[in-house]
Design a protein that fits this description.
The protein is of the alpha+beta class and 388 residues long. The protein is 36% helix and 19% strand. The chain has ten helices and 13 strands. The protein is elongated. Bound molecules: zinc ion (3 copies). One zinc ion binds next to helix 10.
């Protein structure tokens, strides 16, 4: 077959794209089962059955497969240029390109061999030197005197329904079980015992996902440091690990941490979601509207059943030629708190143009009468007449 003038460049580009998608297991590759875990599923224990053994085996296979990938290009090059084993020949008189290619070929054979030796080193004495076992051994106590018992208890906790799994980037995961916090990454798994660690939100950064900056996503950097009686004996000096999560996952994460809580450093501020910032503006606007007095204490809000009703719709705005629908008059008694009314209002607006919300209209949740923000009046109980 004719592959053009520079077959090795074409082959290199195709192969580089393939390797990138494979290593970072893109959705397409996951869908067709082209990931290390699915290809070697027969040899890797299921994560639900044995969490620790699964990750020990997964790390070994991942290291082996990823280090073999460069050799794939050598095979591809040999096939496309019909050069056979010629490309391995190292001749000082050859042009630089040829020498580099030959060195690449030798390295691509050497690296998987070294990684195989490294995996054998890990495997010695029932994974005695494997980083996962080394880590678990630092949690050995009198109650759980061996790493096996800890591994079993982690597996049992992982199987429970209340385990939280959050995605970290493209390949990582954060797993929160009843008593553990586990960060799974491509070549490592890190553990922290919730009752023996401190979790601190140390930084935040905001990224715009829409050009007008209206839809932003905030990431929080969270550091986990080991505490507890034997922290000085740990190899990492108790340094622990850190991870970044989307700020929308923060409350889910802190709800799942049963044995510890997250400290937020004073300089970290949480970015308000679009709805939250609208509700704040809504509240300020309503507060400046005329007060609607009532004789009795308002009943509970029928939206949340938590707050007292705080607003009444009273037609106060003037007819405007710019509006298609003029506001109507609502006869409903006060039934909603400001927050529920604000959410009702926001959810019925054009979600792509939040800057128009404050001047927009909506319909009463009960009688469907049209209203605008000018018509939403705060409710207050009339003071009882002074007794003479
Ligand atoms: Zn409410
Ligand atoms: Zn109404
Ligand atoms: Zn109005």
């Amino acid at each position: 077959m004719d592959y053009g003038e520079f077959p090795h460049i074409l082959a290199g580009l195709i192969y580089a794209v393939f390797c990138t998608c494979f290593i970072f297991s893109t959705n397409e590759f996951q869908a067709i089962g082209l990931t290390v875990e699915s290809v070697f599923s027969k040899f890797i224990r299921d994560e639900k059955t044995d969490f620790i053994l699964h990750h020990i085996q997964r790390m070994c296979y991942t290291l082996m497969v990823h280090t073999i990938l460069p050799f794939g290009y050598v095979l591809l090059h040999m096939k496309m240029t019909n050069s056979g084993f010629e490309i391995f020949k190292l001749n000082p008189d050859d042009p630089w390109g040829q020498i580099c290619l030959s060195l690449y070929c030798h390295t691509s054979v050497l690296v998987p061999m070294m990684s195989y030796i490294y995996i054998c080193y890990w495997k010695r004495g029932n994974f005695h030197c494997h980083p996962i076992r080394e880590q678990l051994e630092t949690f050995v106590t009198q109650a759980e005197p061996s790493w096996h018992l800890i591994a079993v208890s982690i597996s049992n906790e992982f199987r429970r329904n209340d385990t939280l799994v959050l995605r970290l980037g493209t390949t990582g995961r954060l797993i929160v079980t009843h008593s553990w916090l586990i960060k799974v990454s491509m070549y490592n798994v890190q553990f922290a015992l919730q009752r023996q660690c401190s979790i601190t939100c140390v930084d935040s950064d905001i990224h715009g996902i829409s050009p007008d900056g209206l839809q932003n996503v905030q990431y929080l950097t969270i550091k986990v440091a080991h505490t507890g009686p034997y922290v000085n004996l740990r190899r990492d000096g108790g340094e622990g690990f850190s991870f970044r999560i989307n700020s929308s996952d923060f409350s889910t994460l802190s709800d799942h941490l049963r044995n510890t809580s997250i400290t937020i450093l004073p300089h970290v501020s949480f970015h308000k979601s679009r709805l939250q910032s609208f509700l704040a503006e809504f509240r300020t606007f309503i507060a400046s509207n005329p007060i609607h007095s009532v004789d009795e204490d308002p009943e509970l809000c029928i939206g949340c059943m938590n707050e007292r009703a705080e607003v009444k719709l009273v037609r106060l705005c003037e007819d405007s030629a710019e509006r298609e629908n003029q506001c109507g008059s609502c006869q409903c008694r006060p039934m909603w708190c400001i927050e529920c009314m604000g959410k009702w209002f926001a959810l019925r607006q054009d979600q792509n143009s939040p800057h128009t919300w404050m001047s927009a209209q909506c319909t009463c949740p009960m009688c469907r009468a049209t209203f605008c923000l000018v018509d939403v009046c705060p409710v207050m109980k009339r003071p009882a007449p002074a007794q003479s």
